[in-house]
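Fig. S4 source data, part A: sequence.
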Amino acid sequence: MERIGGRRNGLERVRAASQPGERRLAGAAPGAQTAAMSTSPRPSAASDAEPRVAAGLAPFVDGDFHVLSPALARDPQYNDRRLELRRKLLALGKVFQERARAAGVTLDVRSSLHQPHAFNHNQVKRMWLYVTRDKQEKGRLKRTLGADLAKDLDASYRNAYLCVALEHDALEISLRIHADAWFDGQNLVNRTKKEGLAVWLALLNALDGPRLRLADWKGEWICGKLTREKLEEFLKYYQPAEHALAIERRLPAPPGARAAVLAPEVPERIVQELEALLPLYRFSAWSTESDFLFGGGSGT
């Protein structure tokens, strides 16, 4: 599983560079304008090609989880079996993509590698579905940030994204803002400063049970039970360029006890949970309808 801890390997802290005529990020350090993006190795274009699948909701089976177990995660003979899971996740993502489009949000759907590769440390312990801003919206963000700050924006995790992930013992549905997606995290922080916490609090408490997480901290921020004081506590410590933020629900799926996640209605439930997270994505991530990065604020 990806550690969403406070890490800098994708983004150095925004450096001070107060130049006349430059825009400054509201809420960032004085003069903060430049940052170095990660140079983590990327898979080749051939190995990273997305499978072609139609939208659909196929139930998970026990083998989908088993091929991610420590005993099999490095074994290339299970690549074809993991590719089946990758296709299943993409098909589910396209169902959600269509529903999001009907709600007025155009999103891109991507998936993680299904074979051991240097990029995943030669083991596939977690398979991801990423749903994030589309190419057109990335282009707008690149123009807003400028060339230096927008390097490597095409990497899905360098954007706020909705996620479905399988591990050998768990199923996760989440909204994530990686430390490298500092601009989306800063947009959220600036928006709560400008508008107050009421809207964010209401959106979080409209969910029943997912947890708001700060990096790998042990804090208890349970959606549906949050208070203004709890969110103030969270924001006191959250630093977008250093910490990851996640709103996640994890369903246990240990070997021998996976019946609950293998039920035929689970894929539809996952899509519904993604739909429930969509308002929080729209509120948090930078877009032309939620533009608070440089202290303006278009509102939604």
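Fig. S4 source data, part B ends here. The chain is about 30% helix and 15% strand.
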